[in-house]
Fold this protein.
Amino acid sequence: MESFRLLELLWNYLEQLPSLLALAGGIIFAIIRWKAHPKVSLVVMIALGFLLIHALVFTIVYYVVPPWFIRSYIGSENLRSVIQNVYLVLALISNSIATVGFGVLLAGIFMKRKPEALNESQTA
């Protein structure tokens, strides 16, 4: 039974593989562009690293926390409500934390931009 649970966790990571590879690729791209844009690259690397760690950690959280709560309420008449609330709270926490990473990423992407000069047709 325990080997099945471990296989399930590995499958969950496999499902996220494209996203994890995209985050890792972004980190590599930021490292490559370091000399040209060191501050931007640093902020982007921090954000992508944060999002990568977030994905890895919350895969484990979603794997461990729901069964822990559900086992406590098996046989209870409000089990369905407990399951819904557990997943709702986990989703709110996960998405709130991911928002921080995406905010830092957007800040890194748009920092150090020079405003475009307005030409005459845009000012009229």
Remarks:
- The mean pLDDT is 89.
- The helical segments are 2-15, 17-32, 38-72, 79-110, 120-123.
- The chain has one domain: 2-112.
